Amino acid sequence: MPNAPTQDLVHAPRLLAVALTLLAMSTLGCSDSATETGTPAPGLAPDPDAPPVTAAPGTPLHHAQTCAQYLGPIPAMSCADAELMPITVDGVEVFDTPASCDRPSALTGTCETGERIAARYTGTHHDGSPRPEVVFVNFCRDGGMGVIGHNSETGATCFFHINMAFPNDARHPGSNDPNYDDYWQSADVVAADNCQGCHQADPWLHSPWIDQLRDPDDPSLPLVPLIASTDSPYVVVGEGFTQPYHDGAPENSCTSCHRAQCDTNFAVPLGELVMPGPFADSTFTDGVSADLQELRDWCTTLPGGQQGGGEEDGGGEGVCDEAFDCIERCDGDYDCARDCVSTHTDDTNHGATMRALIDCADAAGCDFEEDDCLASSCPSEFAAFEALCG
Known about the structure:
- The protein has 2 domains: about 1-280 and about 295-305, no CATH class; about 315-390, no CATH class.
- Helix content is about 25%, strand content about 15%.
- It contains 9 helices and 10 strands.
- It has a 6-stranded mixed beta sheet. It has a two-stranded antiparallel ribbon with strand order 2-3. It has a two-stranded antiparallel sheet with strand order 8-9.
- Mean pLDDT is about 80; it is low at about 1-35 and about 310-315.
């Protein structure tokens, strides 16, 4: 009987739900900036040698310096470092994007070729020495770059995203660089994407798609760390972020190896993969087990905003509605539709999914409102859209 997946990650961008709210710094206005340690993270102690948080609250650098209290310095990163994702059809690598493939993206269900997806960076202590328990992984998608930093010993985890003012293959500075604010988003903007709503069981999600990428230091391992257990520490750090939601999750085979992980945000039914990960192939079980159905039923009861997407948009339906209200006014103009997506979707998950559907509809000659045409001509893109937007 399958366990719930340790699934496909990040995000990028739209890396994102509420059991515990991070403690607010009620005395922030009275704090001495020379000794400020940022918004405290529940159950975590800052590194004793961490530099003070000196950046103004609400700035991207304030978020980075706060995270550095638990992870060490945030490194400089670029999507130019990311590995190319191979796309295969019947085991043969292809270089033109196919309609379907052996291992589609779990998030979007698409098979985009030529994409640099992720790179892995080992953390450092504040004195610059290696810190192998800390890993940063960047995720590149739709012109954005999302980042997860995680300390496997303490569970401290931070989510970051670039501000899109620079191309994602530019070198984006680390937390010790005075230009950091120019390149990155502030904590409140990243928190609105509700990264932990998808990265629920632990920070690292696995799927047959992402597990094709290998750790450059040890190719026998996946690039994305594999650490999940029922008690592996996981604490999200950052002002405005909440903790992953697990209250009332069923105690069955789907939660026997790791915490509850909903798979209802993904175009690929990750809960039906043959467990455990990492996943070499897209091998699925026959049907949905009673335990998996019980887990999925629990997932439908989660408070608003707990399953990806910002809390205010109810999991993304508001984003989709705004974009498609605009698209309906395009009268079949696909370029106009693409402009609507760019205007109304800050979240890269929704943006990438909707653009993929529009591109396929354009190629197939489907009207935006012809569900039957979209479902038959663009099955994976339409399924991904339905999974995110309903």
